[in-house]
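Example record for the data management plan.
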Amino acid sequence: VDGTKLYDANGNEFVMRGINHSHSWFRNYDDTAIKAIAETGANCVRLVLADGVQWTKDDAGTIIDLVEKCKENKMIAIVEVHDATGRDDTADLQKAADYWIEMKDALIGNEEWVILNIANEWVGQWDSSKWRDGYTKVIPELRAAGIKNTIMVDAAGWGQYGQSIADCGAEVFASDPDANTMFSIHMYGTAGKTKRRIQSNLEGVTDQGLCVCVGEFGYNHSDGDVDEAYIMEYCTEHGIGYLGWSWKGNGGGVEYLDLTSAWDGSALSPDWGEVLINGANGIRETSQICSVFD
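Corresponding structural encoding:
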């Protein structure tokens, strides 16, 4: 990370164009999904992993195997622990950080190819200070353990409270002795509701000289409609990364967020998959493979 930009190990700017894949719930489809995601032109994939608090714990061997699959398909892997989602207890973030320290052998040596998204949507509350206090504690611990990968930190408020980064992102960044932390806002019916909201959320980060991406977004959600076309347009115009949620396997009433009805990607959903992948400012049109694979 250098200012508002993310650079790869060769010193070239890297703008993420990716897709989320729910590994922890659909392990048997990893090979098919990762290959199919790469075939969309995506240059990265964000992988749902588990530390054992809520879902079956992923071991280091599994992580190493997933990273190798991503490398074979010329995609940067973004790894995250999903068990802390929406939780407000700092202990849950600490458990995620401890998990990564336990799994550090899967990260060390893979700095060129792996971004560490410590915990998915930790802090459900719209509470900037709680969010700051948690991350300023665990980031130095991860660095002290020898983890040098670029770190990604989701906003508070289930990832949608971009104001938490505007309020306290500079302090979180300053807690990283490697100065290699970026931020992520998840855009659904709150953060991604209107052009004005999308712009203000992202500018709230970049105006401070911090690096941000849209780590998740859909075209609709239970909290309202999303202006996905403007998210993609704004990110393209400003060199900001985005990752659509999610390849396949959504449940609980949000099945419409599946980008495809087939794990091999042979049947993209017309309202979402076709838009994200083949639409204006979509993945095929704007994605460039990371230069570490040249």
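Summary line stored alongside the record: The beta strands are 17-21, 44-49, 76-81, 114-119, 151-154, 181-187, 212-217, 220-221, 224-225, 241-244.
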